[in-house]
């Protein structure tokens, strides 16, 4: 895990952490000490969002009324996505619009360490790419009144078509993915899909087809095993959530998205419903085809083994191809297949996939130029901005159709085909992963125990229900809620 | 990796400094001899280190006690006081007690194993070679071995962690398992078997610590007057008798210090567990330790208040341990 930024590994850490909503506030010694001292003194001005830059008049081209000469400070997490998409695409676009504005670009891998003391002292930047291992807890920032609500952004006219709102130009679910206590605070920018990834070339050569049901999956596992290849694997040491994604996606296919909503809302007994039990039992069966040693490996080790043709199917998200590009041999063609159906009576078809927006961008409420921050986000959500991002970072954005005409990699092409096949059958994301870290930590633990055969599906459900009940009863945890 | 020093850890007794400062013999004779006129001189020397110590060690400790009484999430400037709620919560926290149990095991095994091995090695290095000229000597090549033994101590814990990741890797690409594979033994899941994982991590701790204590005990042994050994040897004492009847009793003070140091190390183990264990403290909480839970609670769960309460608990455990050890092992000092 100790890998430097810019290595392919980093993208997973960063993306996955965003995805699981690692709301960890990982401050360095200095930041922590400073903030610790800060508890003693300065009074908190919570809840107020007082922009300090003198606003200009609003117009169709300048819907937020950005002061043309107000400086803008942009903080970018410089990980797997790099920061050239900001310095070479979005910042020049902003500069083109406001030539007098001076842009200060800060690239860091330690968002929390860099920014926590600045939040405590009130000297905050205008736009933050809040990602990486060391991101700042968005929910905590929001609770302290440090985040600017983005309703204004989503309702603003789009740059490409002023007749439409920005919210109409992005993939469904994007705005919802950034809700905190029911209001949009985070702009999730990168579009990802989740499922089982395999080497299409290998499958073609061996005459294997990706399984559509769990029974087919088991039959295929036998065939793959006979060839001396591990049929399915995930990395237990640091990425067991890749496996629980599969369990929960399968459960959602059985029962429908309401299950995931109920799990997020800590509904009594949600973890002990038949859908979760069936799914957990089915995946535990698949777990038996894994080598025990995978529990002690990290994700890059397992992923590299897949590139070497030692592993057939691997659960992950669409960043995988980009993450592994240095290890992927010529002829290896990443392809995505949806998680197999568990029962014949599943509510959602096999083709249903989980697709979601990730990679959060925020505007601090107490920024000096929050209007500029909003405008910067609006530029990112333009077709030109999104296309430039895809070109620089290799990742598809939430902006619909922005990547049209770009040459897609095998993985991205497969992703796009899977998305088309899924249509409106989209499995939603688990918000509890970001809301209730303790529950999430317990789920990782129990997922390893289940998948590596130490507990049964029954025990898994029982232990998770206990953890969910504990979270629900814990008065120190702010409860969240979602309906979609 | 995020396993280096962090503020909460600074507020918990993970390091040796507080104890070292209060350790016996730390300068009282000097102070006793000081005359009034010399105070400004002494104060001039002490003011900077004491101020630094107060700011960077004492004040975080005090702040940890304060934060433990709040529900601070790490961002706001005004945490709310919630009384002793965080402490009552500790009693029902399964993971906390799992960590405490592991410290119990660490506390027994790590100091015992380290001291035993270090004593054995330092005896070999210093005294077992028989008499030569005026004094005792170690076995052949002892100077070389001394360097080798000390080497792990020079490596940063993080590096040791990464090294042992490769050594313990659970499939046949791991160093140990690839050797086992050659003699036909199935790979052993050093860190993934819940019954084995903590022992594997303790192995690393002992491996890393032994070198330092070999040097410490060597120093202790070399300060034992040679004529004591000569006299014993003349009386026909063998190596075993020399070791148990002469060396060990005369090393008691050094061993007491070693025990306290190793005990405090057993209350830490953060970096190794964080780097080596499955899912940080796993599998199934089998390796988790308090500093790791403190770190997770503060920085993952954003519960700085509760994490500080754990820190305070750890503080009292460490202090109790150190005080108990010094008291229980107190013996009459042998002057020589």
Automatic annotation (TrEMBL), chain A:
GO CC terms of this entry? cell envelope
> What PROSITE patterns is this protein classified in?
TAT
> Where does the source fall among the domains of life?
Bacteria
Record-linked InterPro entries:
Bact_solute-bd_prot1 (IPR050490), Chitin_NgcE (IPR022386), SBP (IPR006059), TAT_signal (IPR006311)
Keyword list (alphabetical) reads:
Signal, Transport
Please give the Pfam families that the UniProt record associates with this protein: SBP_bac_1
The residue range of the signal peptide is: 1-40
Where is this chain's protein located in or outside the cell?
Answer: Cell envelope
* Family annotation (SUPFAM superfamilies): Periplasmic binding protein-like II
What NCBIfam families would the database entry show?
Answer: chitin_NgcE
PANTHER family reported for this sequence: ARABINOSE-BINDING PROTEIN-RELATED, SN-GLYCEROL-3-PHOSPHATE-BINDING PERIPLASMIC PROTEIN UGPB
Report the sequence similarity comment from the record.
Belongs to the bacterial solute-binding protein 1 family.
This one is known as: Carbohydrate ABC transporter, N-acetylglucosamine/diacetylchitobiose-binding protein
Q: Which organism is it from?
A: Planobispora rosea
Task: Please name the taxonomic classification of the source.
Answer: Bacteria, Bacillati, Actinomycetota, Actinomycetes, Streptosporangiales
From TrEMBL, chain B:
Keyword Ribosomal protein among record annotations:
no
Q: What is the lineage of its organism?
A: Bacteria, Bacillati, Actinomycetota, Actinomycetes, Streptosporangiales
Q: Which organism is it from?
A: Planobispora rosea
Protein name per UniProt: Sugar ABC transporter permease
Record field: transmembrane = 41-62, 105-127, 147-168, 196-216, 258-277, 304-326
Gene Ontology CC terms, in alphabetical order: plasma membrane
Q: GO BP, one example?
A: transmembrane transport
Keyword Transport part of the UniProt annotation: yes
Task: Write out the ranges of the annotated region (Disordered).
Answer: 1-23
């Amino acid at each position: 895990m100790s890998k430097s930024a810019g290595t392919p590994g980093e993208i997973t850490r960063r993306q996955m952490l965003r995805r699981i909503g690692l709301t960890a506030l990982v401050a360095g010694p200095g930041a922590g000490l400073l903030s610790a001292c800060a508890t003693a003194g300065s009074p908190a001005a919570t809840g107020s969002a007082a922009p300090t830059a003198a606003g200009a008049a609003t117009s169709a081209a300048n819907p937020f009324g950005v002061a043309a000469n107000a400086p803008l400070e942009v903080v970018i997490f410089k990980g797997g996505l790099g920061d050239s998409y900001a310095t070479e695409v979005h910042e020049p676009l902003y500069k083109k619009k406001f030539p007098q504005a001076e842009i200060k670009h800060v690239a860091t891998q330690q968002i929390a360490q860099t920014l926590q003391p600045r939040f405590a002292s009130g000297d905050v930047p205008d736009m933050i790419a809040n990602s990486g291992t060391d991101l700042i807890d968005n929910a905590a920032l929001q609770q302290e009144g440090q985040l600017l609500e983005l309703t204004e952004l989503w309702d603003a006219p789009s740059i490409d078509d002023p007749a439409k709102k920005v919210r109409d130009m992005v993939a469904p679910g994007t705005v919802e993915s950034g809700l905190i206590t029911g209001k949009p605070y985070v702009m999730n920018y990168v579009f990802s899909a989740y499922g089982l990834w395999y080497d299409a070339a290998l499958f073609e050569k061996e005459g294997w087809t990706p399984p559509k049901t769990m029974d087919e999956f088991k039959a295929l596992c036998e065939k793959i095993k006979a060839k001396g290849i591990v049929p399915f694997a995930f990395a237990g040491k640091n990425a067991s959530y890749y496996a629980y994604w599969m369990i929960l996606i399968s459960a959602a296919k059985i029962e429908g998205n309401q299950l995931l909503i109920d799990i997020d809302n800590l509904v009594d007994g949600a973890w002990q419903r038949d859908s979760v039990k069936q799914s957990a039992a089915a995946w535990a069966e698949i777990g038996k085809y894994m080598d025990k040693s995978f529990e002690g490996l990290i994700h890059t080790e397992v992923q590299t083994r897949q590139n070497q043709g030692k592993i057939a199917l691997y659960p992950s998200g669409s960043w995988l191809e980009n993450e592994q590009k240095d290890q992927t041999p010529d002829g290896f063609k990443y392809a995505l297949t949806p998680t197999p159906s568990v029962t014949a009576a599943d509510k959602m078809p096999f083709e249903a996939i989980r697709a979601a927006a990730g990679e959060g961008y925020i505007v601090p409420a107490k920024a000096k130029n929050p209007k500029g921050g909003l405008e910067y986000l609006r530029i990112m959500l333009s077709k030109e901005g999104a296309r430039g991002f895809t070109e620089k970072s290799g990742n598809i954005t939430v902006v619909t159709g922005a990547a049209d005409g770009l040459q897609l990699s095998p993985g991205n092409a497969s992703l796009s085909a899977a998305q088309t096949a899924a249509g409106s059958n989209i499995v939603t994301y688990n918000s509890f992963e970001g809301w209730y870290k303790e529950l999430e930590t317990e789920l990782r633990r129990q997922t390893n125990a289940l998948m590596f055969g130490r507990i049964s599906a029954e025990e898994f459900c029982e232990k998770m229900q206990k953890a969910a009940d504990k979270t629900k009863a814990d008065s120190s945890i702010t409860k969240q809620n979602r309906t979609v | 990796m995020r396993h280096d020093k962090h503020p909460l850890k600074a507020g918990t007794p993970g390091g040796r400094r507080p104890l070292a400062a209060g350790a016996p013999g730390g300068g009282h004779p000097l102070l006793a001899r000081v005359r009034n006129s010399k105070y400004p001189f002494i104060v001039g020397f002490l003011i900077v280190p004491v101020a630094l110590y107060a700011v960077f060690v004492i004040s975080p400790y005090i702040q940890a006690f304060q934060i433990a009484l709040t529900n601070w999430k790490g961002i706001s400037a005004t945490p709310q006081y919630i009384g002793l709620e965080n402490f009552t919560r500790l009693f029902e926290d399964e993971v906390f007690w799992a960590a405490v149990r592991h410290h119990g095991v660490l506390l027994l095994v790590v100091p015992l194993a380290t001291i035993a091995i270090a004593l054995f090695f330092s005896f070999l290095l210093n005294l077992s070679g028989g008499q030569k000229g005026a004094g005792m000597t170690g076995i052949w090549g002892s100077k070389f071995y001394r360097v080798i033994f000390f080497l792990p101590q020079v490596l940063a814990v993080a590096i040791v962690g990464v090294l042992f990741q490769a050594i313990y890797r659970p499939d046949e690409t791991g160093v140990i398992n690839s050797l086992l594979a050659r003699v036909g033994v199935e790979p052993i899941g050093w860190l993934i078997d819940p019954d084995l994982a903590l022992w594997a991590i303790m192995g690393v701790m002992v491996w890393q610590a032994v070198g330092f204590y070999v040097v410490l005990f060597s120093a202790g042994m070399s300060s034992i007057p040679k004529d004591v050994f000569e006299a014993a040897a003349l009386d026909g004492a063998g190596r075993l008798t020399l070791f148990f009847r002469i060396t060990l009793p005369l090393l008691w003070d050094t061993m007491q210090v070693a025990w306290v140091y190793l005990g405090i190390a057993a209350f830490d183990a953060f970096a190794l567990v964080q780097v080596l264990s499955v899912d940080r403290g796993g599998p199934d909480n089998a390796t988790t330790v308090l500093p790791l839970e403190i770190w997770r609670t503060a920085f993952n769960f954003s519960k700085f208040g509760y994490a500080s309460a754990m820190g305070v608990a750890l503080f009292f455990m460490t202090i109790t341990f150190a005080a108990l050890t010094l008291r229980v092992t107190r013996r009459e000092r042998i002057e020589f």
